[in-house]
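Hey,

The postdoc asked me to send both predictions to you directly instead of through the lab channel. I've kept everything plain text so nothing gets mangled by the mail client. Protein one:
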Amino acid sequence: MISPGPASGEDEIEAIRQPLDINSSSSDDDTVTIEPEDAYLRSLRVQRELANRARPKVPMEIDSPFDPAALGLKEIGNLASWTVSSCKPGCGVDALRDDDTGLFWQSDGPQPHHLNIHFSRLVSILSIRIFLDFEADESYTPTRITLLAGTGYHDLIPFAALNFEQPKGWLDVPLDHVGGGLDGKTLRAFLVQVRIVENHQNGKDTHVRGLKIYARDDRARAGIGGLLGDEAMEKKSVLKGQGNGMERSWLVEPDWMGEPELR
């Protein structure tokens, strides 16, 4: 009697092959002859092998390595004022900003929930990362998030809409079409708002376990104390008109006008 356990791919192939390939007689000394694999079975075996190779070797929830220093980035969240629409006691901005993803911001009010990140000057943002954990938070896990940016609350414009099913780990917010910088992937804003539109299973309140904002680290790239050397403080561009050339100087921001730092 055959046990009902699941059969492997080779077992399934053998089960198909037996009625086709094996010839036997009633004699005790008869030998079993296996015919060469036919085209159908060969195709089936190849398909299974390709499917097994296509399966991801690493679980999807494992984060890909992210080294800000190697990318020439620095986290600038400490230069901003953070506020949230509501929070449970002990689960506010401090918990959200903590590097320990075991802590989280938990809202405590009507939807949509939102958090505001307000900088004192115009900043150039190259990366935004959000940490969510469906396994730990279940119905508190956001499934729809909208990010907006502007100079203030009166002119916020959406720049990213995120949809999740069961997120786990650090998630990168796409900045491909924000329009700033030479490549169009730099977000320039005073204010960034993260709006939680919907939670898993229509949960009322939400959990966000981490949020990081990165800008270019000019000091690390230059390898000196200032943002740029003296020789790079002024760039010249010649615009040629109708027979007359006009020279325009583009001044790079001096060090005292750079991003404020907490010392």
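Protein two:
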Amino acid sequence: MAAAAVTVPGGAGASGVIPCPLPATVEDAICAAQKMQPGGWKNAVLSQGVQHLKPGTALEAAAYTLVSYDTLGSRAINVPQTECRGISLKQLSQLVDFIRDHAHLWVETYSGSPNFEQPLELQTFNLYHTSHWVIKPATLRYRCSFVELVAKDAETQFPCWFVSHAWQEAVCRFVACLRQHAELRNAVGLAYWVCAYANNQHKLQECCAHDISWLWRFKVWIQSQIMVTKTSGS
């Protein structure tokens, strides 16, 4: 009998791969994984190559990867004002841990890269990779920003620092820079405003089309700005 091979991180047997008999859909793969590995599968995404599969998609006799994003956030907290969506070092550290556990299952998505469709690794996993493999799929169920997904309450997400940075920089290095800044400035418990996590990646056109005066208001009351440059200097 033909079957799809579904890789499930952290379980489903020694190999982490479960067979999903065909014909089957994305939902069938999730159900099969849940039987083998009970847990949070409410916010899960199945991918093949560089593509995230839509619900209802019929599977083929091919290799897939199924990832649950419930550990990042099981519900969305509404933070209506974009300028109020800061992210804490603790939340960023949890993101790095998530990337560390899953990066090897994902591949380079930029077709112009010499590493296109090759497995990724933590030390080179940048914000472009994070947007594709973590932020967008993790927030798709709620169509919210990443900050709203990981927030416990809106008030604690209020930012004190505005961060300008290069998307090409590895996320783990970016977080290490902010950790050092927090220690120097005694700001360990404070939140940082970072565009990729604050903006709703599913509604970027709306954000750009509407009044952006919030950005200027934001810069008036923000404590200061941080610029994180890429290691190569670009």
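Summary for protein two, as requested: Strands lie at 3-7, 17-21, 44-48, 51-52, 63-68, 87-88, 159-165, 191-193, 224-228.

Thanks,
C.
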